[in-house]
Amino acid sequence: MRSSLTRRDLLAAGSGLAAAAALPALSGCSSLASADSDPDTLVVHTQLGTTAPGSPTYLAAVDGFREENPGVQVKNLVNGDDLGQVYETSRLARKEADVVMVNLYDKTLAWTDVGATVDVGPYLDEWGLRGRVLPAALADWTDDEGRLRAFPYFATNWPVAYNRALLDRAGVDEIPTTGDALIAAARRLRAKGLAPVTVGGNDWTGQKLMAQIIQTFLTEEEARHVYATGDFGGRGALRGIEYFTHLRDAGVFADKAQGLTSDSMTTQFNTGEAAIQSAMSSALAKVPEQVARHTEVGGWPLADGAAHEAPTVIRAQTLIGFWVSPNGVRKIEQVEKFLRFMYRPDTVARFVTESGRDMALRTDAVSTDFPLVGAAQRLGSEVSQVLLPDVYVPPAAAQPLITATSTSFTRGTSAARVRAALESAYRSA
User: Fold this and answer.
1) 337 and 307 within one domain
2) Is residue 151 one of the residues assigned to a domain?
3) Are residue 76 and residue 177 in the same domain, yes or no?
4) What pLDDT, on the 0 to 100 scale, is given for residue 70?
5) What are phi and psi of 77, to 5 degrees?
6) How far apart are CA 335 and CA 42, in angstroms?
7) The pTM is what?
8) Is residue 172 located within the same domain as residue 146?
9) Closest to 254 in 3D by CA, of 281, 276, 279, 284
């Protein structure tokens, strides 16, 4: 494996010229300078630490680690959606953090291949932690070369939330399980001045929901091929696109969905303005109690001839993992202490009970204070699982796919134009 990330590698991995151009300006800033060379200071680059779900639990866990390991200091570097680019920039300066907490998506797909992070499989075995990880998580985090990109940690369950009180107000007697029933429900909801399905058609939430709907007529193997290659011309993919546009033009999605974001989506659902949303478990944990007590979770309604036996949900094990950098290898004893602590059953249980997180690790903990998260975890044969496409989409196509999503949620855009927009996202990949 190559030991460092070159500019050419970085650009090939999809980080773009912006990261390289920003290097001289950023190399002296606190986010890079704080990648401490002190062998007793472990630097963790994370998205947890502000308002991200699980942040209070994470910070409390770090405090607990410090108390038990007084000889090891932990310094957190916190970023949001820009974490990937900030990390890549710091790696170019050889000032990257020792451990990175981020999901497997877009830029991060290439990190292990280009030497920005290391294969952690040998450490997982050496430290006796493999048995703590769910088999599905090990599979999802392992690349085509057999390298384990990171220590799996957070998973996600992505069902559909239905506000039963709003459906009742509109005269919808049952949770829709078919496309026709969903269209009928949308008409009744609109007649009462309520938005049917709210979705962030201008960001990743819309991209995921559209991918879920397109998979209505795809087997898992077929879906993997479609999202790895960008070939949306097969019969199943075309039928899925047509199903999506049929639902869209029938008024299933909230007005001007192509301009909505994940924040506006959750606001509409959590305030009772919309009756339905496709929500990952971290969003379900934030549904206020007065709405949650009237909410049921299920799957996305199917159409005739679907490849699945029940309404669909997305489940994935790749929401957050602990990546080890080349700098981290130099502090591997401290990394081991930290990872052992974070993998402990009592630490893992806290994320479930205190934050309502789904975990990629084995745990008996139950999200009793987060009823919708718990209900989603209990969904069984009444739903079918489809792929989260993130680990199959080439990094260079990830952001263009979101742009294509906004076009696709614009009412009146033909199925042919939707297909063209999706396939064009792959041309630079």
Assistant:
1) no
2) yes
3) no
4) 93
5) -105, 125
6) 7
7) 0.86
8) no
9) 276
Phi and psi torsions of 193, nearest 5°: 80, 20
d(CA 93, CA 26): 9
The residues facing 320 across adjacent strands are: 154
> Which pLDDT score is estimated for 372?
95
- What is the chain's length? 429
Q: Which of 16, 82, 2, 1 is nearest to 46 (CA)?
A: 82
Closest CA to 168 of 198, 192, 152: 192
Average pLDDT over residues 252-267: 96
The answer to whether residues 200 and 145 belong to one domain is no
Instruction: Report the CATH number that the domain containing residue 203 is assigned in CATH.
Output: 3.40.190.10
Asked if residues 314 and 212 have their Cβ atoms less than 8 Å apart, the reply is yes
The one-letter amino acid at 182:
L
Please report whether residue 1 resides in a domain: no
Do 297 and 199 have their domain in common? yes
User: How many whole angstroms separate alpha carbon 243 and alpha carbon 222?
Assistant: 17
How do beta strands 358-359 and 151-158 pair? Answer: antiparallel
CA distances from 283 to 63, 114, 266, 333, 357 (A): 26, 33, 7, 36, 10
Are 250 and 197 contained in the same domain? yes
Residues 326 and 2: their CA atoms lie apart, in Å, by 10
> In this structure, is residue 133 part of a structural domain?
yes
- Above 90 in pLDDT, residue 412? yes
- Tell me what pLDDT residue 37 has: 67
Residues 232-249 have a mean pLDDT of: 98
* CA–CA gap between residue 271 and residue 273 (Å, rounded): 6
The secondary structure of 112-175, three-state, reads CCCCCCCCCHHHHHHCCCHHHECHHHHHHHECCCCCECCEEEEEEEECEEEEHHHHHHCCCCCC
pLDDT tens-digit readout, 190-208: 999 999 999 999 999 999 9
309: pLDDT confidence band, cut at 50, 70 and 90? very high
Q: Are residues 205 and 259 in the same domain?
A: yes
Which range has the worst mean pLDDT, 5-14, 161-170, 176-185? 5-14
What range defines the domain where residue 21 resides?
7-155+318-366
CA distances from residue 192 to 173, 290, 411 in whole angstroms, order as listed: 15, 20, 21
